[in-house]
């Protein structure tokens, strides 16, 4: 039986010579903390520029129409997938279109709607509590300041920055699992604490870049730079990354690890993204956007 023909990586990804990537990673591992702040900043910004070319369509992967919807969806996304949240929130927001409606909704009804997301009782209590606080303290409108958002039940800096950056246009770094992992692999920080990671990364970029950078790191973490086996052999920033080699470096083996629209067999979906079609349009065409 003939072996399957290897599928090449997406053509729009920057190709990196493996020898160059190996040499760069070895050099950066040797220098480590000796990399000057200026050199680290320049390398970080080069990585961001390359990722911008790889993911020109990167936006929040939670569907929303206003700050209230994004806030609730983000809280619900804990310990589940964005795909499941996006499948659940239309029914929730049809039943509870405003914070007041959610605060006054029947608890059992809300539990039934969010049940597919897991931990549905705790999540119901959380979103109804934050909705009540918005009604009581902010006249029913989601506040647009970090210091106000983090006073809401169940809302930390990560959730607040998601809402600020994507619903209000206020720059913020969203340090989730993917962001933190990539920031450490790129040598931008050695910290594990999200607040300290946010501090270190913020020093490398202009505030105007923070929100887009956050989206790109999440996209790259989900599609290429996986936690267990990063697809180093097809990574467009391989020659800029001191962690090159943590995953397979052969092109064919690495390409087989790609997910979402980069996965083998999903070339038409990627073409749709690159052509400027929205997530809603692609779903209407019958595409499943998850891996």
From TrEMBL:
Annotated Pro residues bias: 1-11
Function description: DNA repair enzyme that has both DNA N-glycosylase activity and AP-lyase activity. The DNA N-glycosylase activity releases various damaged pyrimidines from DNA by cleaving the N-glycosidic bond, leaving an AP (apurinic/apyrimidinic) site. The AP-lyase activity cleaves the phosphodiester bond 3' to the AP site by a beta-elimination, leaving a 3'-terminal unsaturated sugar and a product with a terminal 5'-phosphate.
PANTHER family recorded: A/G-SPECIFIC ADENINE GLYCOSYLASE/ENDONUCLEASE III, ENDONUCLEASE III
Transmembrane recorded as keyword: no
Binding site for [4Fe-4S] cluster: 225, 232, 235, 241
Recorded GO MF terms: 4 iron, 4 sulfur cluster binding; class I DNA-(apurinic or apyrimidinic site) endonuclease activity; DNA binding; DNA N-glycosylase activity; metal ion binding
Swiss-Prot/TrEMBL cofactor(s): [4Fe-4S] cluster
EC assignment: 4.2.99.18
InterPro entries: DNA_glycosylase (IPR011257), Endonuclease-III-like_CS2 (IPR004036), Endonuclease3_FeS-loop_motif (IPR003651), Endouclease-III_FeS-bd_BS (IPR004035), HhH-GPD_domain (IPR003265), HhH_base_excis_C (IPR023170), HhH_motif (IPR000445), Nth (IPR005759)
Pfam families recorded: EndIII_4Fe-2S, HHH, HhH-GPD
Name this protein carries in UniProt: Endonuclease III
Signal peptide: none
Free-text comment on the cofactor: Binds 1 [4Fe-4S] cluster.
Family matches, as SUPFAM superfamilies: DNA-glycosylase
Keywords: 4Fe-4S, DNA damage, DNA repair, DNA-binding, Endonuclease, Glycosidase, Hydrolase, Iron, Iron-sulfur, Lyase, Metal-binding, Nuclease
Family under the similarity heading: Belongs to the Nth/MutY family.
Catalytic activity line of the entry: 2'-deoxyribonucleotide-(2'-deoxyribose 5'-phosphate)-2'-deoxyribonucleotide-DNA = a 3'-end 2'-deoxyribonucleotide-(2,3-dehydro-2,3-deoxyribose 5'-phosphate)-DNA + a 5'-end 5'-phospho-2'-deoxyribonucleoside-DNA + H(+)
Superkingdom, natural source: Bacteria
Gene Ontology process terms (BP): base-excision repair, AP site formation
HhH-GPD domain ranges (all copies): 76-223
Region feature (Disordered): 1-39
């Amino acid at each position: 039986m003939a072996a399957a023909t290897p599928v090449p990586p997406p053509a729009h990804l920057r190709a990196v010579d493996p020898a160059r990537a190996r040499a760069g990673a070895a050099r950066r591992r040797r220098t480590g903390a000796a990399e000057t702040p200026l050199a680290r900043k320049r390398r970080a910004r080069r990585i961001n520029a390359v990722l911008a070319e790889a993911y020109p369509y990167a936006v929040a992967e939670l569907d929303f129409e206003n700050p209230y919807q994004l806030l609730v969806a983000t809280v619900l996304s804990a310990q589940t997938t964005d795909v499941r949240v996006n499948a659940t929130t239309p029914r929730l927001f049809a039943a509870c279109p405003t914070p007041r409606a959610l605060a006054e909704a029947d608890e059992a009804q809300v539990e039934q709607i969010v049940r597919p997301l897991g931990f549905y009782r705790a999540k119901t209590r959380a979103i109804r509590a934050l909705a009540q606080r918005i009604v009581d303290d902010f006249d029913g409108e989601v506040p647009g300041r970090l210091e106000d958002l983090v006073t809401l039940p169940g809302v930390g800096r990560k959730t607040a920055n998601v809402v600020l950056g994507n619903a209000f246009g206020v720059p913020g770094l969203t340090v989730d699992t993917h962001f933190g992992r990539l920031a450490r692999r790129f040598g931008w920080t050695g910290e594990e604490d999200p607040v300290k990671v946010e501090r270190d990364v913020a020093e490398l970029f202009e505030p105007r870049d923070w929100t887009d950078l956050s989206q790109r790191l999440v996209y790259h973490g989900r599609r290429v730079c996986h936690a267990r086996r990063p697809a180093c052999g097809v990574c467009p920033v391989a020659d800029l990354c001191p962690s090159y080699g943590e995953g397979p470096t052969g092109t064919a083996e690495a390409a087989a690890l790609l997910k979402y629209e980069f996965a083998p067999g999903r070339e038409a979906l990627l073409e749709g993204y690159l052509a400027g079609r929205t997530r809603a349009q692609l779903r209407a065409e019958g595409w499943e956007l998850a891996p």
